[in-house]
Amino acid sequence: MSDIQSFPQIHPAPLAGHSALLHRLCFYPVLFTQGPYVKMRTPRLPEPDGARSGVVGNGKPLRVVIVGDSSAAGVGVAHQTHALSGQLIRKLAPRVRLDWDLVAKCGNTTPMALRQLQAADPAPADVAITGLGVNDITSGTPLRTWLRQTDDLIDHLKDRLGVRHVYMAGLPPLSQFPRLQGPLRWVLGHQAERFDRALRDRLAARGDATWITLDVSLDHSNMAEDGYHPRADVYAEWARTLSDRMAIDLGV
Description:
single chain, alpha/beta, 6-stranded mixed β-sheet, 6 strands, about 45% helix
């Protein structure tokens, strides 16, 4: 998920070919016109209260850092216990001694998240979990640029923090976000699908990071009042998917 406040930040870049022309004709005009209106009518939810680091559980030590935007920060719930971090803690603490840090902020694009991570300079970690991409789309970042920035983030996690496993959340289905209507829903949904396919392919080619997607449909029943961020049950499904994959990869 993301912070809808990023809609006005549009920076079109030169594109080539028929598909690029269609992208330019459909994508940027809709963001310029409908995006500010949606922003104005969307309630801005706060980041949840609660700890952003800690050590819990017993057993095999596991160090985890969560990096990202408002979705990683847990916007849509009132407390971190119901956000991704808290839900993941509940899954992992019975099996490991979990040492964790949350480095995330509303509105973060991928390069902003990297800068926040560099400034925080958390301790080396075994696992990194990221939730990014939607703000990159709504800020008009070209796909090729975003993939390069994603590479930079993965390289930092591995080279600076010694992370062995990087789990990157795929782009959510923006076409299902209740807040988005009309042309904006279509163009953002199309762009999210495009970015998600490219992310999956890039991570497969790299071979050192894992694409994580959720088998869940989004609607008013599981989205927060802003129609743009998840409620606790979606965060729980994200945590369950990660926990199941980590059990396979790490034996925890």
